[in-house]
Amino acid sequence: GVEVGPQPQGVARADILDKMRKIVKHGLDFVQLFNEGKEFPPCTIEVFKIMERVDYPRNKNGEIIAIIHPKLQDQDWQPLKNGDPVFLTLDGEVIPYQGNCTVYPTFINEAAYYEKKQAFVKTEKMKLTARHLRCSVS
After folding, report:
1. Separation CA 57–CA 89 (nearest Å)
2. Is residue 3 annotated as a catalytic residue, yes or no?
């Protein structure tokens, strides 16, 4: 499957559809070249590994008491360091990120995740190295 976004539920966006078409085309091109016996050299890629799902601050009744801070909104995949603002309470208090390492939040303030009690996901940036690849079947 291919998930391309973010975009609101029930909304069709031409730019997102174009990105999805390009991703699918690249995938099909790879499969064709692989099946033709093309050898792909070793490579290193940057990936983001999920560390933790972070909920909104809540009161004792389970109600959300803070929103995503404006400086974090729309900053998916950008570094979040200790002390950076994360939430803003309804009283105007800033709640900073408290962590011992830089993380890369994603799915920030996604409407589909409110019911899952998820304000964003913390990820860590990693590099993966792939060996050369070649189809062994002729």
Report:
1. 8
2. yes
Spatial CA neighbour of 45 closest among 132, 128, 135: 128
* Measured distance CA(125)–CA(77) in Å, rounded: 9
Look at the block and give the residue holding tokens 């389970």.
Answer: 62
Can you tell me the distance from the alpha carbon of 78 to that of 103, in angstroms, rounded to the nearest whole number? 8
CA distance 37 to 138: 7
**Full-model pTM:** 0.78
Element (H, E) at 86: strand 85-89
Read off the tokens for 60: 């004792």
136 vs 130: CA distance, rounded Å: 17
Residue that has been written with the tokens 């539920």 in this structure: 9
Return the SS3 of 19: helix
pLDDT digits (tens, 9 = 90+) for 80-133: 999 999 999 989 999 999 999 999 999 999 888 888 999 999 999 999 998 988
The one catalytic residue among 3, 36, 63, 115: 3
